[in-house]
Amino acid sequence: MGITINSLTVGLDERDLDVDQRQAVRTAIDHLAEVCKLLDGLKPR
Q1: Domain extent listing, the chain
Q2: What's the confidence (pLDDT) of residue 27?
């Protein structure tokens, strides 16, 4: 699985993870995507 957030691509082979780890990774990625959206919305000083 390749994930791209703001042109940052992360490769991850979910076959190496158990179900709980997969869910944790997906949750972390969702949170990271939210942070990136918030950062994009900030105006430089």
Answers
A1: 2-41
A2: 92
